[in-house]
Design a protein that fits this description.
Elements (H helix, E strand, L loop, with lengths): L2 H16 L3 H8 L3 H8 L8 H11 L3 H5 L13
């Protein structure tokens, strides 16, 4: 799995656990829904750590909790 795919899977899982839609997450995070939609649809190929931190704020979790998932173990090596 590539890193961006893991990020999208993690966001979906956290939304499911909280029973919220991605649009509600965007609202909670104070970010444009189009930004989160682009991430979730794969149009954004390299989600930055600052954006992930904003998403974490919308989920009401610390940044380290976001990455505390088996999804981020053994990711493919990505160059470029």
């Amino acid at each position: 799995m590539k890193t961006q795919e893991a990020v999208v899977c993690r966001i979906r899982k956290l939304c499911d656990e909280r029973n919220i839609k991605v649009s509600q997450l965007a609202y909670n995070a104070g970010m444009p829904p189009s930004t989160l939609k682009n991430i979730m649809n794969g149009n954004s190929k390299n989600t930055g750590i600052v954006t992930i931190k904003v998403i974490c704020a919308g989920l009401n979790i610390p940044l380290d909790e976001f990455f505390h998932s088996g999804l981020f173990h053994d990711l493919e090596q990505e160059i470029g």
